[in-house]
Write a structure and sequence with these properties.
This protein is mainly α and 340 residues long. The chain folds into 2 domains: 66 residues; 251 residues, no CATH class. It has 12 helices and 2 strands; from the N terminus they run αββααααααααααα. Strands 1-2 form a two-stranded antiparallel sheet. Helix 4 runs parallel beside helix 10 and helix 8 packs antiparallel against helix 12. The radius of gyration is 21 Å and the shape is globular.
Length: 340
């Protein structure tokens, strides 16, 4: 027994197991806090854009509204349809929510502030985000509802379609930095001409993450006007809340990915040394909030796409363009002898 407790099983990366658990708990707590108040932020910003007030009753300025929503969902009864596949029906939202959380293990919010600084962090992120489609398909199939099934199929085809262009965008970034480690991607030297070269890929990536997270104007899997809620139509109480939390956690994750890949992570903007007095984690949070605002801005501005328009954009515009851009970036890096 003594040998067991003194073994390496209780030490991860040279740190005590209890310390690692506390670190993981802190990450999950911060992410859930951001998710809760992202919903408040979204409702307030959309209210301002649509000339209304948004939440303003529960607490000062409506700041306790997310807590009230959480208590309401916790206190409701979870209804599992009689004809559904019970175990799969319940596991689906848990899977989606878990995947949205475990991806944060490799996100560096400051120098050395990362749970797992692995050398293939970008591959880990891409693998985890790709698995999210399974939760949606399981929910659509297990609900035993035509609306839910159609929503699940829509989501699967949409996420797979835009993962292709996202992958090619990431390849362009990796060609310029020469590493798969997320911390090294941030600190890699990027001349001004490289940053200008990658700017079109930033635009493609921002549009692709909207489709990957099923957000407006690409929220076809949940299209209330045709399929009355899509794959979540049969869910209630905490099972619905897990989908809701998972979706918003994914939005924050994709915002953080954009910051890491394109916006310099925790480094001060535009390389201005005078701004380095501000802690890096503050810059990381501010940049992430900027991309999170982009999600809200597009939702309040653009109407929903038709499904054929969504697929055409992914396969006939983004795919050829990103393929061409991978060749262009590779050629320019070789021509100017700028390979990292």
């Amino acid at each position: 027994m003594t040998e067991f407790f003194s073994s390496d099983l209780w030490t991860i990366y040279g740190l005590p197991f209890a310390f690692m658990m506390a670190h993981i708990g802190a990450i999950i707590g911060v992410v859930l806090l951001f998710v809760a108040y992202y919903t408040y932020f979204e409702r307030k910003v959309m209210g301002a854009m649509q000339r209304r007030q948004g939440p303003n009753t529960v607490g000062p300025f409506g700041l306790l509204q997310p807590i009230a929503d959480g208590i309401k969902l916790l206190s409701k009864e979870t209804i599992v349809p009689t004809q559904s596949n019970g175990p799969v029906f319940v596991i689906a939202p848990m899977l989606l929510f878990t995947l949205a959380l475990i991806a944060w293990a490799v996100i560096p919010v400051n120098a050395k502030w990362v749970l797992a600084d692995i050398n293939v962090g970008i591959l880990y992120l891409f693998a985890v985000s790709s698995m999210g489609v399974y939760g949606v398909i399981m929910a659509g199939w297990a609900s035993n509802s035509k609306y839910a099934f159609l929503g699940g199929l829509r989501s699967a085809s949409q996420m797979v379609s835009y993962e292709v262009s996202m992958g090619l965008v990431i390849v362009c970034v990796l060609l310029c930095v020469g590493t798969l480690n997320l911390s090294e991607i941030i600190t890699a030297d990027r001349p001004t001409w490289v940053q200008i070269l990658l700017f079109p890929m930033l635009i493609v990536f921002l549009i692709s993450i909207l489709a990957e997270t099923n957000r407006a104007p690409f929220d076809l899997p949940e299209g209330e006007s045709e399929i009355t809620g899509g794959f979540m139509v049969e869910y209630s109480a905490m099972t619905f809340a897990l989908f809701f939390l998972g979706e918003y956690a994914n939005m924050i994750l994709m915002s953080a990915m954009t910051v890491v890949l394109f916006l310099g992570g925790w480094l001060p903007p535009f390389g201005i040394e005078a701004l380095a007095i501000v802690p890096g984690v503050i810059w990381f949070v501010l940049k992430t909030l900027l991309v999170m605002f982009f999600f809200i801005w597009t939702r309040a501005t653009f109407p929903r796409y038709r499904y054929d328009q969504l697929m055409r954009l992914g396969w006939k515009i983004f795919l050829p363009f990103t393929l061409f851009y991978v060749v262009l970036v590779s050629g320019l890096l070789v021509y100017f002898d700028a390979l990292p």
